[in-house]
Design brief:
The chain is built from four helices and nine strands. With about 200 residues, the chain is α/β, with parallel strands linked by helices. It has a domain of about 130 residues: Rossmann fold (3-Layer(aba) Sandwich). It has a five-stranded mixed β-sheet, sandwiched between helices. A two-stranded antiparallel ribbon has the order 1-2. A two-stranded antiparallel sheet has the order 3-4. Strand 1 and strand 2 form a beta hairpin. The protein is globular.
Amino acid sequence: MAGLAPDFDPRFVVVSVRAPVEVGPFGFGWYHVDFAPDGPEIDPDDARAGWERAVAFIDEAVARLEADPARVFVAGFSQGGILAIAAVLTAPEQVAGAVCMSGRLPPELFAHAVDPDRLRGKPLLIVHGTRDRTLEIEYGRQAHRELARLPLDLDYREFDMGHTTSPESVGFVSSWLSARLDGSGSSIPPPSGSARARAS
């Protein structure tokens, strides 16, 4: 994901962190996942330790870079996207907003979410590929449905792609982040033929 840094607004200092759990050759994660026929299975305590470690890293990076938490956004792909949602739901004061790319919303996360009033107006973007075979599009749609019940500033977009990024999806994420950095969502481009917005 560090390779995407040049695609983002040059005002951002992009920090990419390698997850601490080795899950295979050249593969790392924040917690272990088993892919069963009914979908991903996780150990709730293992997953919680993962997102707490990620939030702790955010704090450390903010302190090291002397950054303003009100201008710090966390974004991730797949499990990293799950961690981005977790950061918002469990530690909203520590980030300005988040982007989840091709992730999902584990139901175990709600047991640790803060009071909804602390989430009011917090920006969160979910993007997902309609041809995703690793985490199928229904995971993105389900996350959108569940999170729409909270007072977040929620955006959701689908793109014609698999479990990956595309120039269109990264361009949309970049524009969304720039608009939030400017303090407004007004510059977010409308969906084109390659992207589809669903009601938020």
